[in-house]
Each structure stands twice: as C-alpha cells, then as structure tokens.
Amino acid sequence: MITVFLSLGGNARTKNRDMENMLGMLSTVFSPPIKKSRRMETEPVEVIDKQEWYLNCVVSGGYEGSAFDLLEECRKIEDELGRVRPYRHCSRTADIDILLFGDVIVRENDLCIPHPGLFRRRFCLEGIKEIAPGLILPGKGISVSDYYESMDETIKEQKINFIYPGQAG
Questions:
Q1: 43 and 53 in contact (C-beta within 8 Å)?
Q2: Number of other residues whose CB lies within 10 A of the CB of residue 148
C-alpha cells in the first residue's frame, strides 16, 4: 500500500457540501489512516478570469492501485459532483489533484507526480506540512517543512484564510 496526498478544492455551487462529498467518496477509495488538513479559503491563482475564492484542503491515505487508477477514481468523483471543463483553470465544483504518490515520480501527458502545483500553491504546502511535516519531498530530497520555510516570496504572499473546526466556510 502506498501513501498518497491529494489536494481537494472547489469554488462553485456549495463549496462546503462539495468538499464533504469529495471527502466521503474518497473514504471508500483510501485505506486508513486517512488524514485531513484544515480547510482553507484561498484566493484564486493561475486563473484568467475573475473567480470566487476556493475552498481547499489536503488529504492523505493508503492506496493499493496504480497512480493512473487513482487518477481515474479522482476524475469519476469530479464528474459525479458536476465538474465541467470548458477551459483550463475555470471555476469548478470539484477539483482533485494527486500531489504525491509515495515517492513515485511520473511524467506523462495526463499525469505528473509530484503535481507541479504542489510547489506553486501555498495551500498545498500548508496542507502537507500540517499532516506530514517531516515528509521528504520526492525529487527535492528535503522535508516539506524545510521546503515551506524556503519557498519563494510570491508563494508566501498567496492569500489564505484558515478555517478551524466548527467555523463556517
């Protein structure tokens, strides 16, 4: 079994309900222990149009299939929750990215692991640091905590509102 890390997000419809649905559906895909970061409202980055802020979190768990099997499972969940893809980086109900798949490195047309956004999106680093601070990042050779401390200022400046348990999102 391989430990995987996913980022979950969305900024359309009912973000909290969509997040709960993604987490519930993933609980049938993952094996314990399943860990979740706090939820974070994040300012959109890498988008071309004006969009609502995203609701994001990072989740990890055990997985027994291949990285491509997991990608297929994630896309099924996104589709079931009404994700449409009229253009790249559009608003969405559900977005699930495979950030890490154990220490595997994949560079294919449909799948890149570690996910390139992991190193460009503060919420991804925040989430992994929260649930696995000592994790050594594949291809980097340093812990997520050390990488976080040395990240570029433009990434540090990305706006995040942390949502604590019991707080509305």
A1: yes
A2: 18
- Number of domains comprising the chain: 1
d(CA 31, CA 122): 27
Supply the pTM of this predicted model: 0.93
**pLDDT, tens digit, for every residue of 93-142?**
789 999 999 999 999 999 999 999 999 999 999 999 999 999 999 999 99
* Domain CATH for 151: 3.30.70.560
Tokens for 80, please give them. Answer: 């079931």
Q: What is the pLDDT of residues 20-71, one digit of tens each?
A: 999 999 999 999 999 999 999 999 988 888 889 999 999 999 999 999 999 9
Assigned token pair, 43: 């300012």
Range(s) of the domain holding residue 140: 2-163
Question: Quick one: which of 17, 169, 168 has its CA closest to 81?
Answer: 17
In a domain, 87, yes or no: yes
165 preceded by a cis bond (ω within 30 of 0): no
Residue 168 lies in a domain: no
